[in-house]
Amino acid sequence: MKAKKVVVNQTIQFKAYSKISALGKARDDVNRTLKDCGYDVEVILCKQYRVPFLSNVMGLLKNIAMILRHPLGTEYIVQYPVSSKVIFPWVLRLQRLLGNKVTILIHDIQTIRNGRDLKPDLRVFRLANKLIAHTEAMSRWIKDHGVKTPTAFTQLFDYYTDDDFRPKEDLLKRKNEIVFAGYLKKSSFFAPLSAYDFGDLTFHLYGKVDEGFQAGGNTQYCGIFQSNHTATVLGGWGLVWDGTSIDTCEGDLGEYLRLIASHKLSLYLAMGIPVIVWKESAEAEFITREGLGIAVASLKELPERIAAITDEEYSRMLDRCRAQGEILRRGGRLKKCIMENGK
Fold first, then answer.
1. According to the model, what pLDDT value does residue 21 have?
2. What mean pLDDT comes out for the span 73-102?
């Protein structure tokens, strides 16, 4: 008899804004993919109480109740991070004691991104039976930090969308338009971006902004969009960049790009448009090898690099991005990872 399979999303309940910020989209897409693969879906919504101890106790009880709903020997895929790293190691120990197997599917390693103590994450990774990381670089990082748990990687997030690709003729007219989507307050390189002369290039900024945000120069603020409605985003390239500078990606957020597959990268490919990535990012080699975009050391390279790409070359790039986008739109990356790694 085959073991029962369950995907677990243990998280703090998101507000309505998550539908336009994509805050919970990657997790929802994982649930959708694994449900197609025969997994039961368990969503454990945890509440933040004013007394932290009570939050941990309630989270532990909800996990135990979930485990008791399924037979011994169940195989779990748990989306990570979880709502509490305090109680989760105890949940993993209980799972091991009961003979269940747990794969941790990593969305984010927050301690790297925030420059904090790595031990809580590493403790969880060591207690799992398997790990699914973003990229080969992230897999190496985990191993280099003393974690011996077998680790696979997906290379890209999947990205479901309710919209068709925009017509190719429209995209061909937008070769000089660059999209950046995300939480714009976090992206502090916008000040030097607005001040630099990029010639004929324009940057279309999408996402939530705080009061007083102003676009200028070659940048235009284009508002927010529903994360499942990709056709409302207009542009011919998608930018993946972070940090405070347009000369390089720096700081904790910039360094994090050396390890991760950015979720916005998958958004752009699901739109069917080529991407611009940092030359030293984890995705640079894959993107350039597959002809899905360009890698630059500095954003100041963009006017010359994009001008050098002929319409015919750009058209072929659009075709390759659309083919990759089709894979992401049906959960193909995660399905392939699970199939190849026997999970």
1. 43
2. 94
d(CA 68, CA 60): 12
What are the residues facing 202 on neighbouring strands?
Answer: 177
The pLDDT of residue 54 is above 80:
yes
Mean pLDDT score, 312-335: 98
Decide which of 56 and 280 is more confident.
Answer: 280
CB 269 within 8 A of CB 276: no
Distances from the Cα of 60 to the Cα of 13, 105, 169, angstroms: 16, 20, 54
What average pLDDT does the segment 91-99 reach?
A: 96
3-state SS, the chain, equals CCCCEEEEEEEECCCCCHHHHCCCHHHHHHHHHHHHCCCEEEEEEECCCCCHHHHHHHHHHHHHHHHHCCCCCCEEEEEECCCCCCCHHHHHHHHHHCCCEEEEEECCCHHHHCCCCCHHHHHHHHHCCEEEECCHHHHHHHHHCCCCCCEEECCCCCCCCCCCCCCHHHHHCCCCEEEEECCHHHCCCHHHHHHCCCCCCEEEEECCCCCCCCCCCCEEECCCCCCCCHHHCCCCEEECCCCCCCCCCCHHHHHHCCCCCCHHHHHHHHHCCCEEEECCCCCHHHHHHCCCEEEECCHHHHHHHHHCCCHHHHHHHHHHHHHHHHHHCCCHHHHHHHHHCCC
Between CA 21 and CA 27 the distance in angstroms is 13
Burial (Cβ within 10 Å: 0-12, 13-18, ≥19) of residue 154: buried
Instruction: Find the mean pLDDT for residues 69-80.
Output: 96
Confidence of residue 1 (pLDDT cuts 50, 70, 90): low
The per-residue pLDDT for 214 is 76
Say how far apart CA 31 and CA 184 lie, in whole Å. Answer: 27
| Under 8 Å between Cβ of 248 and 297 | yes
Q: What is the mean pLDDT of residues 322-334?
A: 98
Mean pLDDT on 261-281: 97
